[in-house]
Every structure is written in structure tokens, then in C-alpha cells.
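Limitations

Structures in this collection are predictions, not experimental determinations, and the ligand pose is part of the prediction. Treat each record accordingly. The example that follows, with adenosine-5'-triphosphate as the small molecule, is included so readers can see exactly what is and is not provided: the inputs are given verbatim, and the output is the predicted complex.
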Amino acid sequence: MLKIDNLTAGYGQSQVLFDVSLSIEAGQVLALMGRNGMGKTTTISAVMGLIPRWGGGVNFNGRGIDRMPPHRVARLGVGLVPEGRQIFPTLTVEENLVATAAARGEGPARWTLEAVWKLFPRLRERRRNLGNRLSGGEQQMLAIGRALMTNPRLLILDEATEGLAPVIRAEIWAVLETLKREGQSILLVDKNLSAVLRLADACAVIEKGRTVWSGTSAELGRATEIQETYLHI
Ligand SMILES: Nc1ncnc2c1ncn2[C@@H]1O[C@H](COP(=O)(O)OP(=O)(O)OP(=O)(O)O)[C@@H](O)[C@H]1O
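Predicted complex:
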């Protein structure tokens, strides 16, 4: 579904990604791991086209997307839950969701307002509240709901459980588990190794802008040396 080959990218003159390669099969959950500042968010930004790709290939469902601007990547079916959530502060919860709604043209859309209310009952209760009046957890739920409203083929989540209370984190992990059971393809960045290992099928580890390890979650769970070297656990 998504295949990244030897991707290089950076900001201005400064190169951040030197050689990132990974691939996600349809219906798979892949976790991108690595310590702070190693290039995880930069990888996601380069996939989405939010920053220029310098070299290498990014292929989505058989199409090269490495020259596409973000709106075209999104239209092909890549839904992003960005770091920091970035919801529209002056729109209501419902308006935030409707603003991004998009069908994929393959029969009835899986994700509608009703479906999002069912996944996150809390959002239904808060539907008329402005984005900037929500708690952090509610904002994160809204960011996920908003990405789902695009009916993505691939959902990308950047630190979706960061800075949330444990009970809200648990709710987000449970939602991701539900999405996985439904066959949603997911690429996620998260620092919580044990939760990642429970959810993800496969993991890729990056260090200073290079993929240094990839394998199944079970393999990473056993690879204590990799964990100690690259994840500082
Ligand atoms: N907008 C930017 N301009 C310049 N340099 C940046 C920018 N964003 C990130 N960087 C640099 O790129 C490197 C990789 O950052 P990135 O945010 O991709 O790391 P990360 O692995 O996602 O880490 P974190 O877990 O801290 O989010 C860091 O050295 C960072 O300082």
C-alpha cells in the first residue's frame, strides 16, 4: 500500500532524512519508532508532501506520490492526524468533522458523522462546542475523527497519545484496536513501546534519519538490544 524507498529530505540546507525505507501492506499497522529528533515527523511530512522530498521514492497503491502536493496525497486516501492535533479552533466539533469529509467513491462511505459519534460518544456530546473549548483528549479524538471523515485508505497518526491522561490514552488505543480489526491500514508514531507492540503488526526503527531496523512487533519485543540501542528502554 505505502512503500518508501531510500527517502531523503530536510529543511532548508539541513538534511534530516538520509535513507528511510519502509513498507506497509493493506490492512497492516506499522509503527515508526525512534528517539526524539530522529526524523519520524519529518518522514510523515515528506510522505504527505508537507515538505519537499529531496530524493528516493514514495509509492502509494502503485502510484508515485513523491512529487504530489499534500491535497493530492490526501485525495488519494492518506489521512493524517498531525502532531499537535491542529484542529480548527473557531469551528465547532461538528464543523471540524464536516470540513474534511470526503467520500472515496466506492459505495457508501464508512465514515460519517454518525459513525464518528459512535466511535467517540464524547464528541457527540460536545458537537456544538468550539475546537478551542475542548480538553486535550477531546481535541485528539476530534483530530482522529476528522482524519477518518476523509475515509482514508491509510491513516497516519503522529504521537496521538502524547500528553494525555492515562484513561484517555487507553481509550485512544482501544479505538485504534477497533480500526485495526476493521482492516484499516495504519502508520503510527508513538513512544509507548508496550502499547505499540500490542497493536502494531510491524515496526521500523529510525536513527538519525536512517532506517536501522525493521521487522515484526514480536521480533522487536524480543530484540532487547535494538530497544536499548535505539529506543533507550
Ligand atoms: N521545521 C523545521 N525546521 C528545521 N529543522 C527541523 C524542523 N522540524 C524538525 N527539524 C529537525 O529535524 C530533526 C528531526 O525532527 P523530527 O521532528 O522529524 O523528529 P522526530 O523523530 O519526530 O522527534 P520527536 O519525537 O521529537 O517529534 C530534528 O533535528 C529537528 O530539530
